[in-house]
Design goal:
Helix content is 75%, strand content 0%. It is mainly alpha-helical.
Length: 253
Protein backbone atom coordinates (compact mmCIF):
# COMPACT_ATOMS: atom_id res chain seq x y z
CA UNK A 1 0.00 0.00 0.00
CA UNK A 2 2.81 2.39 0.85
CA UNK A 3 4.49 1.83 -2.53
CA UNK A 4 1.19 2.51 -4.27
CA UNK A 5 0.86 5.75 -2.30
CA UNK A 6 4.32 6.88 -3.39
CA UNK A 7 3.47 6.09 -7.03
CA UNK A 8 0.19 8.03 -6.85
CA UNK A 9 1.84 10.99 -5.12
CA UNK A 10 4.68 11.05 -7.65
CA UNK A 11 2.30 10.98 -10.61
CA UNK A 12 0.28 13.84 -9.13
CA UNK A 13 3.35 15.87 -8.22
CA UNK A 14 4.83 15.72 -11.73
CA UNK A 15 1.79 17.38 -13.25
CA UNK A 16 1.68 21.01 -14.33
CA UNK A 17 -0.59 22.08 -11.46
CA UNK A 18 1.59 20.81 -8.62
CA UNK A 19 4.89 21.73 -10.24
CA UNK A 20 3.52 25.25 -10.64
CA UNK A 21 2.58 25.32 -6.94
CA UNK A 22 6.12 24.19 -6.08
CA UNK A 23 7.97 26.68 -8.26
CA UNK A 24 5.74 29.74 -8.51
CA UNK A 25 6.04 31.01 -4.88
CA UNK A 26 9.84 30.86 -5.01
CA UNK A 27 10.23 32.27 -8.52
CA UNK A 28 7.82 35.15 -7.88
CA UNK A 29 9.52 35.95 -4.55
CA UNK A 30 12.97 35.96 -6.18
CA UNK A 31 11.79 38.25 -8.98
CA UNK A 32 10.08 40.72 -6.64
CA UNK A 33 12.80 40.80 -3.98
CA UNK A 34 15.51 40.77 -6.63
CA UNK A 35 13.88 43.77 -8.30
CA UNK A 36 13.74 45.66 -5.00
CA UNK A 37 17.36 44.76 -4.28
CA UNK A 38 18.59 45.93 -7.68
CA UNK A 39 16.57 49.14 -7.48
CA UNK A 40 17.63 49.89 -3.92
CA UNK A 41 21.30 49.09 -4.44
CA UNK A 42 21.77 50.71 -7.87
CA UNK A 43 22.77 54.09 -6.41
CA UNK A 44 25.32 52.53 -4.07
CA UNK A 45 26.88 50.48 -6.89
CA UNK A 46 26.93 53.53 -9.20
CA UNK A 47 28.63 55.53 -6.45
CA UNK A 48 31.38 52.92 -6.09
CA UNK A 49 31.84 52.56 -9.85
CA UNK A 50 32.06 56.32 -10.45
CA UNK A 51 34.42 56.70 -7.52
CA UNK A 52 36.64 53.94 -8.86
CA UNK A 53 36.87 55.69 -12.23
CA UNK A 54 37.40 59.24 -10.94
CA UNK A 55 39.07 58.40 -7.62
CA UNK A 56 36.84 61.03 -5.99
CA UNK A 57 35.24 59.98 -2.71
CA UNK A 58 35.10 63.48 -1.30
CA UNK A 59 31.49 63.06 -0.12
CA UNK A 60 32.71 60.51 2.47
CA UNK A 61 33.64 62.08 5.79
CA UNK A 62 37.31 61.05 6.10
CA UNK A 63 37.41 62.26 9.68
CA UNK A 64 34.59 59.93 10.68
CA UNK A 65 35.64 56.99 8.46
CA UNK A 66 39.38 57.39 7.80
CA UNK A 67 40.15 53.70 7.20
CA UNK A 68 37.16 53.16 4.88
CA UNK A 69 37.97 56.31 2.90
CA UNK A 70 41.60 55.23 2.58
CA UNK A 71 40.74 51.70 1.41
CA UNK A 72 38.32 53.00 -1.22
CA UNK A 73 41.30 54.50 -2.99
CA UNK A 74 42.44 51.01 -3.98
CA UNK A 75 40.73 49.44 -7.00
CA UNK A 76 41.08 45.95 -5.51
CA UNK A 77 39.16 46.92 -2.38
CA UNK A 78 36.52 48.66 -4.48
CA UNK A 79 35.82 45.61 -6.64
CA UNK A 80 35.97 43.31 -3.61
CA UNK A 81 33.37 45.47 -1.87
CA UNK A 82 31.07 45.43 -4.91
CA UNK A 83 31.45 41.65 -5.28
CA UNK A 84 30.71 40.97 -1.61
CA UNK A 85 27.74 43.33 -1.69
CA UNK A 86 26.25 41.60 -4.73
CA UNK A 87 26.97 38.07 -3.47
CA UNK A 88 25.58 38.55 0.03
CA UNK A 89 22.70 40.65 -1.26
CA UNK A 90 21.76 37.92 -3.75
CA UNK A 91 22.11 35.25 -1.07
CA UNK A 92 19.82 37.29 1.21
CA UNK A 93 17.25 37.56 -1.58
CA UNK A 94 17.32 33.78 -2.14
CA UNK A 95 17.06 32.92 1.57
CA UNK A 96 14.23 35.38 2.16
CA UNK A 97 12.48 34.05 -0.94
CA UNK A 98 12.76 30.52 0.47
CA UNK A 99 11.11 31.60 3.72
CA UNK A 100 8.29 33.39 1.88
CA UNK A 101 7.78 30.45 -0.48
CA UNK A 102 7.56 27.96 2.41
CA UNK A 103 4.92 30.13 4.09
CA UNK A 104 2.95 30.50 0.85
CA UNK A 105 3.00 26.73 0.21
CA UNK A 106 1.75 26.22 3.77
CA UNK A 107 -1.26 28.42 3.01
CA UNK A 108 -1.87 26.39 -0.15
CA UNK A 109 -2.33 23.12 1.78
CA UNK A 110 -6.17 23.19 1.57
CA UNK A 111 -5.93 23.70 -2.21
CA UNK A 112 -3.48 20.81 -2.58
CA UNK A 113 -5.59 18.50 -0.40
CA UNK A 114 -8.75 19.35 -2.31
CA UNK A 115 -7.02 18.71 -5.66
CA UNK A 116 -5.90 15.26 -4.47
CA UNK A 117 -9.40 14.51 -3.15
CA UNK A 118 -11.15 15.48 -6.39
CA UNK A 119 -8.78 13.37 -8.47
CA UNK A 120 -8.72 10.13 -6.47
CA UNK A 121 -10.94 10.29 -3.37
CA UNK A 122 -14.25 11.94 -4.25
CA UNK A 123 -15.99 9.42 -1.99
CA UNK A 124 -14.18 10.70 1.13
CA UNK A 125 -16.11 13.35 3.00
CA UNK A 126 -14.34 16.57 3.83
CA UNK A 127 -14.91 18.64 6.93
CA UNK A 128 -14.79 22.35 7.63
CA UNK A 129 -11.45 24.03 8.26
CA UNK A 130 -10.55 25.01 11.81
CA UNK A 131 -11.40 28.55 12.75
CA UNK A 132 -8.73 31.25 12.72
CA UNK A 133 -8.50 31.67 16.49
CA UNK A 134 -8.40 27.92 17.15
CA UNK A 135 -5.66 27.50 14.53
CA UNK A 136 -3.62 30.35 16.01
CA UNK A 137 -3.96 28.92 19.51
CA UNK A 138 -2.81 25.45 18.44
CA UNK A 139 0.12 26.88 16.46
CA UNK A 140 1.15 28.96 19.50
CA UNK A 141 1.07 25.81 21.67
CA UNK A 142 3.22 23.96 19.14
CA UNK A 143 5.79 26.76 19.18
CA UNK A 144 5.77 26.86 23.00
CA UNK A 145 6.48 23.11 23.12
CA UNK A 146 9.18 23.58 20.49
CA UNK A 147 10.81 26.30 22.58
CA UNK A 148 10.74 24.12 25.71
CA UNK A 149 12.20 21.15 23.83
CA UNK A 150 14.87 23.37 22.29
CA UNK A 151 15.91 24.67 25.72
CA UNK A 152 16.06 21.11 27.06
CA UNK A 153 18.39 20.00 24.26
CA UNK A 154 20.82 22.91 24.64
CA UNK A 155 22.87 21.28 27.47
CA UNK A 156 23.22 18.13 25.34
CA UNK A 157 24.94 20.01 22.51
CA UNK A 158 28.29 19.53 24.26
CA UNK A 159 28.13 15.80 23.49
CA UNK A 160 30.40 14.98 20.52
CA UNK A 161 29.16 13.15 17.43
CA UNK A 162 25.50 13.17 18.46
CA UNK A 163 25.08 16.90 19.08
CA UNK A 164 24.01 17.54 15.47
CA UNK A 165 21.14 15.02 15.70
CA UNK A 166 20.14 16.22 19.16
CA UNK A 167 20.00 19.78 17.86
CA UNK A 168 17.63 18.67 15.09
CA UNK A 169 15.10 17.06 17.46
CA UNK A 170 13.14 20.22 18.38
CA UNK A 171 13.11 21.30 14.73
CA UNK A 172 11.83 17.88 13.67
CA UNK A 173 9.08 18.18 16.27
CA UNK A 174 8.15 21.59 14.85
CA UNK A 175 8.24 20.26 11.26
CA UNK A 176 6.15 17.19 12.12
CA UNK A 177 3.60 18.95 14.30
CA UNK A 178 2.99 21.88 11.97
CA UNK A 179 2.60 19.69 8.88
CA UNK A 180 0.29 17.22 10.60
CA UNK A 181 -1.86 20.01 12.01
CA UNK A 182 -1.79 21.77 8.65
CA UNK A 183 -3.39 18.70 7.07
CA UNK A 184 -5.92 18.13 9.86
CA UNK A 185 -6.96 21.78 10.00
CA UNK A 186 -7.41 21.90 6.22
CA UNK A 187 -10.34 19.50 6.54
CA UNK A 188 -8.68 16.56 4.81
CA UNK A 189 -11.19 14.14 6.36
CA UNK A 190 -13.17 13.59 9.54
CA UNK A 191 -11.00 10.79 10.93
CA UNK A 192 -7.61 12.31 10.03
CA UNK A 193 -6.47 12.63 13.65
CA UNK A 194 -7.34 8.98 14.37
CA UNK A 195 -5.45 7.83 11.25
CA UNK A 196 -2.38 9.83 12.32
CA UNK A 197 -2.49 8.29 15.81
CA UNK A 198 -2.87 4.74 14.49
CA UNK A 199 0.05 5.16 12.08
CA UNK A 200 2.27 7.32 14.27
CA UNK A 201 5.40 5.13 13.97
CA UNK A 202 5.21 4.92 10.18
CA UNK A 203 4.54 8.65 9.87
CA UNK A 204 7.46 9.41 12.19
CA UNK A 205 9.77 7.46 9.85
CA UNK A 206 8.34 9.08 6.71
CA UNK A 207 8.43 12.56 8.20
CA UNK A 208 12.01 11.94 9.38
CA UNK A 209 13.00 11.24 5.78
CA UNK A 210 11.08 14.31 4.61
CA UNK A 211 12.73 16.41 7.31
CA UNK A 212 16.28 15.52 6.31
CA UNK A 213 15.42 16.05 2.64
CA UNK A 214 14.11 19.49 3.56
CA UNK A 215 17.53 20.38 4.99
CA UNK A 216 18.99 20.27 1.47
CA UNK A 217 18.85 23.84 0.07
CA UNK A 218 16.16 24.34 -2.61
CA UNK A 219 15.55 20.56 -2.73
CA UNK A 220 13.41 20.69 0.39
CA UNK A 221 11.48 23.68 -0.90
CA UNK A 222 10.61 22.06 -4.21
CA UNK A 223 9.52 18.85 -2.46
CA UNK A 224 7.31 20.53 0.14
CA UNK A 225 4.30 20.24 -2.15
CA UNK A 226 5.20 16.57 -2.72
CA UNK A 227 5.22 16.01 1.06
CA UNK A 228 1.69 17.40 1.33
CA UNK A 229 0.50 15.40 -1.71
CA UNK A 230 1.94 12.16 -0.29
CA UNK A 231 0.45 12.68 3.17
CA UNK A 232 -2.92 13.61 1.65
CA UNK A 233 -2.93 10.36 -0.34
CA UNK A 234 -1.91 8.38 2.73
CA UNK A 235 -4.63 9.82 4.99
CA UNK A 236 -7.42 9.87 2.40
CA UNK A 237 -6.65 6.31 1.33
CA UNK A 238 -7.09 5.11 4.92
CA UNK A 239 -10.12 7.25 5.68
CA UNK A 240 -13.45 5.63 6.53
CA UNK A 241 -15.30 8.93 6.45
CA UNK A 242 -17.51 8.34 3.39
CA UNK A 243 -19.62 10.94 1.66
CA UNK A 244 -23.05 9.58 0.78
CA UNK A 245 -24.00 9.84 -2.89
CA UNK A 246 -27.58 10.80 -2.06
CA UNK A 247 -26.82 13.83 0.09
CA UNK A 248 -24.05 15.84 1.64
CA UNK A 249 -24.15 14.20 5.06
CA UNK A 250 -21.20 12.29 6.42
CA UNK A 251 -21.68 8.69 7.40
CA UNK A 252 -20.51 8.19 10.99
CA UNK A 253 -18.81 5.06 12.16
Amino acid sequence: MHNATIVKASKDFFTGKFLFMSLAPFVVSVLLLGGFFLYGSSEFIDFLQQGAISGDYSHIDEAAHPIFAYLLGFAVFHWLLVTLFVVFGSLGVVLLSLVIAVLVVGFMTPIIVEAVRKKSYVHVAKVDNDGLFLSLWIVVKIFLKFTLLFLCTLPLLILPFVNFFIFQLPFFYLFYSLMMYDLVSSGVCKDAEQIIKENRIYLFIVMGIFFFLSLIPLFGLLLQVFFIVYLSHFILNKSKSVELASNTHIEKY
